[in-house]
Specification:
The protein is α/β, with parallel strands linked by helices. The protein is built from 22 helices and 13 strands. A six-stranded mixed sheet has the order 1-6-5-2-3-4, with helices on both faces.
């Protein structure tokens, strides 16, 4: 990673709009992992608005919290006056990025890719300002699909015009490909780096884009795009853009609790931004349950709280970190799902940790809820059946053991082997708990 001298750093601290250089902001908050030319990028960011891009392959029908790290970096850059391009990889998804994959991606249909891309566009618009202005009639941020220029490419012409700039020997040394050589790398996937590099060149030509950001595992791909601009564009036009250089910047790649890279795990364990795939209650709980060692880092990366406030929140240890974790969970949930949903999730979490009143529990709409016919409850339901119905036990036998071992609760009191009726309703609901952290509301309808 290129390191600027102290003198050079001081010269480029102020940005073109009078704010602190956003590079320093990103670095202080822990975003930056590698940069192709730190001194040059600092100067470009201080000289005026820089157009930059980040790509998102629509391989699923929602973004997840691995993507959200990149989106937060984009938001910081835009808030500092720079212009983001969000590239939905409708074209590259048809090949599949081999990075950190043990096997090739399943081939997706064009219809699946298009549907997922539309969801991505809606979700990204929640974080970036795409409004049109006099200075930016196309929008303060741009959203494009690389299928627009990749699908019409003539294969022979593409190889002739751009394949000559890529050395097979160098590509095989890329971590992107090297890790797959033993398990098998298809020629289809081998094209991925070329197409991602071409994306950067195309955006450079169309919009004057001179910076690409991506996760640290994308370093070789991102760098290849900057190199292709230098080799293929060249000349006077290149010399006029951002001090005559295109820049590659990669961000920290985080690991989840199991040590897997966020965004590279199986879909079953992923935390999605779509509330239908990860309910807000579960989303909030993910952040509440981060380890003590991770909370300061997550606050810096996933919220806009000032660093000084984050340092104050995390200057304690042990049980006292609960406030910092609650702040993290609330702030991220608010960004993704809105303030009211975040407050509902917060109330639900206080129920979970036993710090809420029953009224707060009853009103916590984000606690999973099972609806039941009132007539059925009026007739009476055995406790074991109720636990199974609410999804807190897999079978009647498991429910019976849960009750006998003292792990089942109804409205805050230990549940015995008995029949539950409408007499047990409090504020119109039944609040069931299994163990310490699994809650379910039962609501008669």
């Amino acid at each position: 990673m290129a390191i600027a001298t102290a003198e050079r750093k001081a010269e480029t601290t102020a940005t073109w709009n009078g704010q602190r250089n956003v590079y320093d902001v990103l670095q202080e908050r822990g975003f930056i992992y590698q940069c192709s030319d730190e001194a040059g990028l600092r100067t470009a960011l201080a000289a005026g608005p820089v157009t930059f891009y980040c790509g998102f392959d629509p391989t699923a029908d929602s973004l997840h919290i691995g993507h959200l790290l990149q989106v937060m970096a984009m938001a910081h850059l835009q808030q500092a006056g720079h212009r983001p391009i969000a590239v939905v990889g409708g074209g590259t998804t048809m090949i599949g990025d081999p990075t950190d994959k043990a096997s090739a991606r399943p081939i997706m249909s064009r219809e699946e890719i298009d549907a997922n891309a539309q969801v991505f566009k809606r979700q990204l618009a929640h974080f970036l300002d795409f409004s049109e202005t006099a200075d930016y009639p196309e929008g303060r941020a741009i959203m494009v699909d690389n299928a627009e220029w990749l699908l019409p490419l003539n294969y022979i012409a593409f190889l002739r015009d751009y394949g000559k700039y890529f050395s097979v020997n160098e590509m095989l040394r890329m971590e992107t490909y090297r890790s797959r050589l033993e398990t098998g790398l298809t020629f289809l996937e081998f094209n991925y780096a070329l197409l991602q590099a071409y994306d950067f060149l195309e955006l450079y030509r169309r919009y004057g884009c001179t910076l690409q950001i991506g996760g640290s595992d994308q370093w070789s791909n991102v760098l290849a795009g900057a190199d292709l601009i230098r080799k293929a564009a060249g000349g006077q036009a290149y010399a006029k853009a951002a001090g005559g250089q295109a820049y590659a910047l990669t961000t920290t790649l985080l690991a989840d609790e199991s040590g897997e890279k966020m965004g590279k795990t199986s879909r079953s364990g992923q935390v999605w931004l779509d509330p239908r795939k990860t309910p807000p209650y579960d989303f909030y709980q993910h952040w509440i349950n981060v380890s003590d060692a991770q909370v300061a880092q997550r606050l810096a990366l996933y919220t806009f709280l000032p660093i000084e406030e984050i340092q104050q929140l995390t200057s304690v240890s042990g049980e006292a970190l609960r406030t910092a974790k609650e702040t993290l969970a609330f702030e991220v949930t608010k960004l993704v799902h809105g303030e009211e949903v975040a407050r509902q999730a917060q109330r639900a979490a206080r129920v979970l940790f036993g710090t809420a009143t029953f009224e707060e529990m009853a009103g916590a709409e984000t606690i999973p809820t099972t609806e039941i016919e009132r007539s059925r409850l009026e007739a009476g339901i055995p406790a074991v059946d109720l636990l199974v119905l609410a999804g807190l036990a897999d079978s009647k036998g498991a429910a019976r053991r849960l009750i006998d071992q003292g792990g089942a609760y109804l409205n805050g009191e230990r549940l015995e082997q008995r029949t539950v009726t409408t007499v047990d309703l409090r504020d119109g609901i039944l609040l069931l708990r299994a163990g310490k952290k699994r809650y379910q509301r039962v609501k008669p309808v």
